[in-house]
Write a structure and sequence with these properties.
By secondary structure, the protein is mainly beta. The chain starts with 5 loop residues before the first helix and ends with a strand.
């Protein structure tokens, strides 16, 4: 066994020891698979850097979440000149296994093991913090058999690509854009890194390097997408409340707000007995839009994949388009995608499953299952009660 592989083997052993057991339900895992392209700038290294165009190529990165906090990432680095006959100009591959630890709402610590762009096996650690305007900063250390490097980085959400919400469950509609989101909104980044080699045998005059690369960091979301926040109804979100609490705003409708709310992407969804579902700005309380039903709404809504699901006293289950992230009014928020009638009022919160099913009960004594995207009824189970 080559000595160069030992740091990676140790790192993989540490990562494997921290892997969680696969859960039977993954409804609370918000991280999608990513496939994105980010620009690559020519590296600046010491005084002997090879002269290249400023935009020297691109990084094509695929990210596959395996468990919460664990992901596998592969990057193909392609040069703009496509002169594959020259040494070092052929596409290069990086493959790494990452284990992320959420330290706060904006800070992530990462352990990494893998192989970098034709180089030796390596292990590393990174601390990343998200700032305002979607900027990020980070510090890192990397170790191979021969070298130790430290780095500082600045990242921006400059990337283009596609996402897949929960690829392990093969969820429809497959690879595409999440409603109203770019891959930059989800976590894909272009990272500008300054790196210093601390090894004593580093070539004189070339200890520092400045370069860009494709990178990603998934930050936790503290949304409240349904009654009780999750299917188990735990009513728990790992976020610290700013004490003492104080009222920021209030909203009054013409009917009682008795069903409970959902909170996703800075939008509050509040059903009212005045027949309306209201979408409110989380920060200001201002109404963004509303959708009118034909009867009072007494059940809490559920939100998933850019759509809101809620029932009415008339026995209708609605599926409407949700607001986009940060309340941007692109698309058609509030547009009714489908609705289906039952023989009794629907006053509970629907369950939205990982395999794209909407399950809910009606006061007609039956439990219904519909396709989340198609609105087609898949089955109905009469319970014999009400």
């Amino acid at each position: 066994m080559k000595l160069a592989a030992r740091p990676a083997l140790v790192g993989l052993a540490v990562l494997a020891a921290t892997l969680p057991a696969p859960a039977q339900e993954r409804t609370n895992d918000p991280y999608p698979a990513l496939l994105f392209v980010s620009p690559r700038l020519a590296p600046i290294a010491g005084t002997k850097a090879e002269k290249e165009p400023i935009l020297s190529g691109a990084d094509i990165t695929a990210v596959l979440p395996l468990w919460p906090g664990v992901s596998l990432a592969g990057t193909v680095r392609v040069r703009a000149d496509r002169d594959f006959s020259r040494p070092g100009h052929r596409p290069q591959l990086r493959a790494v296994l990452n284990r992320d630890y959420t330290l706060s709402e904006r800070t992530v610590a990462r352990l990494t093991a893998g192989r970098e762009f034709g180089g030796p096996w390596m292990v590393g650690a990174t601390l990343h913090r998200k700032l305002r305007y979607d900027l990020g900063v980070g510090l890192g250390v990397k170790r191979t058999e021969d070298d130790t490097t430290v780095s500082a980085s600045v990242s921006i959400p400059l990337a283009w690509g596609r996402t897949h919400r929960n690829w392990l469950a093969h969820r429809a509609p497959g690879w595409g854009r999440l409603p109203g989101q770019s891959v930059g909104n989800v976590g894909a980044l272009t990272q500008f890194t300054w790196e210093r080699d601390l090894s004593p045998n580093v070539e004189r005059g070339r200890p520092n390097q400045l370069f860009s690369e494709g990178q990603y960091f998934f930050l936790p979301t503290y949304d409240w997408p349904r009654l009780g926040r999750d299917v188990q109804g735990t009513g728990y979100a790992p976020v610290r409340l700013p004490l003492p609490l104080s009222e920021r705003w209030e909203f009054a409708s013409k009917g009682a707000l008795s069903g409970g709310i959902a909170l996703v992407d800075d939008t509050v969804y509040a059903p009212s007995e005045d027949h309306n579902l209201y979408a409110l700005n989380l920060v200001t309380g201002e109404e963004r839009w509303r959708v009118a039903a034909k009867s009072p709404l007494r059940g809490a809504p559920a939100v998933a994949a850019g759509r809101v699901y809620f029932g009415s006293d008339e026995g209708l289950m609605y599926c409407v388009d949700a607001s986009t992230p940060n309340g941007k009014q692109s698309g058609h928020p509030g547009r009714v995608r489908w609705s289906h009638k039952t023989a009794g009022p629907i006053t509970g919160c629907p369950i939205l499953t990982d395999n794209e099913k909407c399950i809910f009960g009606s006061s007609d004594g039956s439990v219904y299952c519909f396709g989340m995207w198609t609105g087609c009824r898949l089955w109905m189970f009469p319970t014999g009660g009400r």
